[in-house]
């Protein structure tokens, strides 16, 4: 089966990782498989797992299928009232009982974006036929457009030629608390809520990262614009910024800046926004850490749950940085640099790092020094890479939308 030829592998005590028993595994060995309602297009699919791991939503084109994970039974089929390319799907628990079901979509021919929301009952059936439409769409870069409570979410527009690009912050419970973040002048590709919900960070192609008051929408700080030069005349250009997020302990803001050899990942001290809380010598303008030495953009980053380590991915490369040791402690590097490492996620209390490279889903056990792979065999057909990485605690499964556009789950590493 297709696996990466490696320049460097994960290690523990200077011993390279070895395959876990039975790995690498191929499609067809999964514990569960779920099919889309229609033969899917790679550009018109989405899937979402409910927070309680009971329901799976699969959407392609405008067709929706809600499935019970427990018995693989279809409980709802319906249509999304918006024609366009689907970006993402979410099922979030509602304080009113049941679920809120949301779909992000874009119609590039009409240059319109929308996030659509309807209500599901506790068993996944439609609670009503009413759909609420919000302007904007979710970012392709961010895996999580929601606040920690899952009751607020982001949406932004991606219209060519727009010089004032808003970020909409919507509430599912209280529309009066919706705010609009204004100040970016090019596409906003990444947004994040701080863990306590007080702050929002954004990263955009206008060369800046910004920090906002999540309640009022007030701009609190701007990093950049970050610029570089090229050519014999040292022509100035603005870097495209790709990613932002907060550490789980809420102490730091991450900003991924630029592309190619100019890429850097800066870590800023959030406490320095209020000088009375900052450590001596810290400034909100100055990163406590600036990680360089990349060959391409960094568009995937995952913090361990205790914020002690940070995993970063670019094309054919994954590194893990330890804040305690102040150095990179892991390096996974493939010879083939065409496949970007995506979806980096820590599971099992930070003991397992999962990610996607090419058509496969892979994971590494940081304590066991074992590696895992689930992907196509030599004769399987697929188009592109997979989507999502889900860890189902209730089932002990890991999986997502695979590159052949089917949802598969396998027994998860421990």
Automatic annotation (TrEMBL):
BP terms from Gene Ontology: protein polyubiquitination
InterPro entries per the UniProt record, alphabetical: WD40/YVTN_repeat-like_dom_sf, WD40_rpt, WSB_SOCS-box_domain
Residues crossing the lipid bilayer are none
The WD repeats are found at 181-222
Q: Which UniProt keywords apply?
A: Ubl conjugation pathway, WD repeat
Does the keyword Oxidoreductase feature in the UniProt annotation? Answer: no
State the source organism's domain of life. Eukaryota
Keyword Transferase carried by entry: no
Name of the protein in question:
YVTN repeat-like/Quino protein amine dehydrogenase
Organism, by scientific name, is Lophiostoma macrostomum CBS 122681
Biological classification of the source: Eukaryota, Fungi, Dikarya, Ascomycota, Pezizomycotina
